[in-house]
Design a protein that fits this description.
2,3-Dihydroxybiphenyl 1,2-Dioxygenase, domain 1; single chain; binds fe (ii) ion; 18 strands; 2 domains; alpha+beta
């Protein structure tokens, strides 16, 4: 598939904004236990970054009455890209608005859109530079996340989601899971703009909903150190799945739930995708190695629970629509 020519250039997934009910408790969890750094805070939000970040934030914690994902955001190359995206979404008649200056911190013009899959997605070009902690080794703690790597979303029709991200936004597929022939419908896809396996994975599921965000770690022992830190601080029950290795992406991983139940993944061991025209790795839906190359099978809740998203117009949670396809369950109850 030849990538379409588009009048804008998305660089990467930039940040995700989690809704949390207790800002201080969540800040302490992500900073003291997980090893992120607090860049700034105010009464409504805490801004966090990881050790590779040279800009203000990759995770934002937002005070809210319920858990969930407020939005996730892609960084674009230039201010002109933002105008081109505005025109792009206007043609599609999608709800959108520019986030007011008072609602964003350290961040340039930001376009917030309800995308065709129903997700609240932001686009921005500028984020304030901050001190780089990569070689401040004395500050590295526990799992020590290096960067925000990806977001994983659920949508009832993942074939449609794949087509939107590839044709509508210029993403490339690294890996694909397909249903049975002859239709061979896409059940999930791992799609990138930066040269790693993904910036976003689009999976079949009740949605729109966010399954998790993935934080990269420097090396495999970071997964173990993260689990030890969680257990030592009394958060052993927050370890939801793993450590184990995915077939897809080759990632060594552990999935963690924050104090509100928001899910994230600590992730390491994937590979470069510098050849943007390489054919994607294809997996059959009935191949259990795609999910778990080795390690215990996931718990049922890993499949059945996800983070809600809201309307950018009303703020109301969007009701999840049922998935069009169901996979054979591989969970343990
Ligand atoms: Fe992931």
């Amino acid at each position: 598939m030849t990538p379409p020519a588009l009048p804008f250039n998305i660089q990467k997934l930039g940040y995700i904004e989690y809704q949390v009910t207790d800002l201080e408790r969540s800040r302490d969890f992500y900073v003291d236990i997980i090893g992120l750094f607090e860049t700034a805070r105010d009464s409504e939000r805490v801004y966090l970054r990881a050790i590779e970040d040279r800009e203000h934030h990759c995770i934002v914690l937002k005070r809210a009455p319920r858990a969930g994902v407020a939005h996730f955001a892609f960084k674009v190359e230039s201010e002109q890209d933002l105008d081109a995206l505005e025109a792009h979404f206007r043609k599609l008649e999608r709800p959108m608005r520019w986030i007011a200056a008072g609602e964003r911190r350290a961040q340039g013009r930001t376009l917030l859109v309800q995308d065709p899959l129903g997700f609240p997605v932001a686009f921005y070009a500028k984020l304030e530079p901050v001190e780089w902690f990569l070689q401040k080794y004395h500050l590295h703690r526990h799992g020590c996340p290096t960067r925000l790597d990806h977001v994983n979303v659920l949508t009832p029709d993942a074939q449609k989601g794949y087509e939107w991200y590839c044709n509508g936004l210029g993403f490339r597929p690294a890996e694909i899971t397909e249903g049975d022939p002859p239709e061979s419908r896409i059940w999930a896809s791992w799609l990138f703009r930066k040269s790693t396996v993904h910036d976003i994975a689009v999976m079949t599921g009740d949605g729109p909903a966010v399954h998790h965000a993935g934080l990269s770690l420097m090396e495999p022992m970071g997964v173990i150190r993260a689990c030890d830190a969680l257990a030592g601080a009394g958060y052993a029950d927050s370890i939801e799945r793993g450590p184990a290795r995915h077939g897809i992406s080759n990632a060594l991983f552990v999935y963690v739930r924050d104090p509100d139940g928001n899910r994230f993944e600590l992730y390491t061991g994937d590979y470069l995708t510098t050849d943007r025209n390489a054919p994607p790795v294809r997996w059959r839906l009935d191949d259990a190695r795609r999910q778990t190359l080795w390690g215990p099978p996931p718990p049922r809740r890993w499949f059945e629970e996800s983070m809600a998203v809201s309307s950018i117009e009303t703020g109301e949670e969007i009701a999840k629509q049922p998935a069009l396809m169901r996979a054979i369950p591989t969970y343990v109850s």
